[in-house]
Design a protein that fits this description.
The complex is a heterodimer of chains A (about 325) and B (about 250).
Chain A (H helix, E strand, L loop, with lengths): L1 E10 L2 E11 L4 E5 L6 H8 L7 E6 L2 E2 L5 H6 L1 E5 L10 H5 L1 H5 L4 H14 L4 H4 L9 H13 L5 E5 L7 H18 L2 E6 L2 H7 L2 E6 L2 E6 L1 H6 L4 H6 L5 H6 L4 H4 L12 E3 L4 H11 L3 E5 L5 E6 H4 L7
Parallel strand pairs in A: 3-8, 3-9, 6-7, 7-8, 11-12
Antiparallel strand pairs in A: 1-2, 1-4, 4-5, 9-10, 12-13
Chain B lengths: L2 H14 L1 H16 L4 H7 L13 H31 L7 H13 L2 H12 L3 H25 L3 H9 L4 H31 L12 H10 L2 H31 L1
Helix pairs in contact in B: 2-11, 4-7, 4-9, 5-7, 6-7, 7-9, 8-9, 9-11, 10-11
The chains are: A alpha/beta (about 325), B mainly alpha (about 250).
Amino acid sequence: MIELFDVTRRFGDETAVDAISLRVESGELCALVGTSGCGKSTTLRMINRLIEHSEGEIHIDGQPIRRFKEDALRRRIGYVIQSTGLFPHWTVARNIGLVPRLLKWSAERIESRVEELMALLGLPRETFADKYPHQLSGGQAQRVGVARALAADPDILLMDEPFGALDPITREALQDELREVQARLHKTIVFVTHDMDEALRLADKLVVMDAGRIVQQGTPLELLHEPATPFVESMLGGDDRGLKEASLVRVGERMLPLGPRLIATARVHRDATLRQALAVMFREHADRLTVIDDEDMPVGELSLRRLVGNTRHE
Amino acid sequence: MSEPGVQRQAIRALHRWRLPLTWLALLLVLTLGMAELESVFRWIETESRQVIYDRADFVTLLGRHLLVVMVASLLATLIGVSAAIAVTRRAGRDFLPLVAQIASMGQTFPPVAVLALAVPVLGFGTLPIIVALLLYGLLPIVRNTLAGLQGIEPSILEAARGMGMSRGQVLRQVELPLAAPVILAGIRTSVTVNIATAALGATVGASNLGDPIISGIVNGNTAYILQGALMIGLLALTVDSTFERLTRRQVSR
């Protein structure tokens, strides 16, 4: 658990972060979203003391972070940055094993841990262990970056626009992988991004920042339903935010059991999002879809009326 | 490893080192067999009775020359690298412009002037030439070490600190290895230049490969000058190509 109490950071006369309070529960992924210069990266870097806070207190698991030695604190917090920061003169395996080596793990333990992480992030050991960072693609390098951050099994992971430099397809693939990894490991993650779609996809809790202050925080759906200010609304894409909401809800949550009517020919998977279902309707010129499960068996149906949340008469 | 494997490796190593080895062989041949070339030098220098420098044998001259350069370069490396490291740390940052300036001043100062100033203080002999070479060789080392350390991508250092490496660990495991090729290039320049400059030592009584040259100039004996120059040239080439080899291995790794 990470808690910030009235944390302020000044650089000279400028206040980069202005008395913010925030609580990230254990196992939660909290996304800090905002335009550049809003103080989100500064906030992140105050948590592992790469930047010292000027005022207020930051606690990890109830302990003020200044009570720990800097280096000891950082070794128990994973850190991922946009430009990866991999050491160019070290192999992939050595890069991943960095923190365990700092913690003086035994060689065998490091080796098996590195192997485990490479498997977790889809980097076959035979292919990648002895490669150097310059031989990797952007996506592969960032996977190594994530593996390195996870190496000593820290409870907390700080990620500073980790996927910001990747092409859209690789970025989505890595977002999915992060979701899978998170579903298995339940780390406490603070994730900085300026990409609202990314934040909505990944976050349990969304924190919108502007000019060093927190404008609104809540779950993605809470923010989409009730944006507190016009700024939050514009961050959420204005009128587009209906579609953003549709991509957060699964078909399975809105569908009705199969009725007596004829089965519709257009089909959509139960785990697809409402946004995808809408796209299928649009493409097939259909206002009714058959919902199927993994075995392609019909399990329900979804009408356009139902999809948009109009439940009065059905 | 099997016998043929070892042999093949040895052959490959020999192949990689062929350039430095060639220069070294030529240098040794000349050092030991200068007298055999008497007829060649007599053809060049027709006027003098004596055409092979013999006030000291070339092995001794080469040894002294190498010793002076080695001592001066070792000290210059030690001082230069430490100074550059010190001024790129947080505590020493204020001194960065000063050190950069002093180092470049060292280079603009002609070595002869350093010698002229050093002799009254240190007396004749080997000491003033070592001081002159040390000062003269400092600049490329300081400059390159600074460039090497400052050329490291900031995100790499941020990641290193963010992962919980101590400042000493960052320096030893990240900064120095990454800057090593550039630092080595600076040392290479410094040593090579100093091999040539060390010949000036002969003017203040430090006997080395500069002796035949000075003596040749004084007595108008072209053969002496040629012998000194050839030896110094070959020594410089040997050392320079050795460094080149070392730097290349660093990079490919």
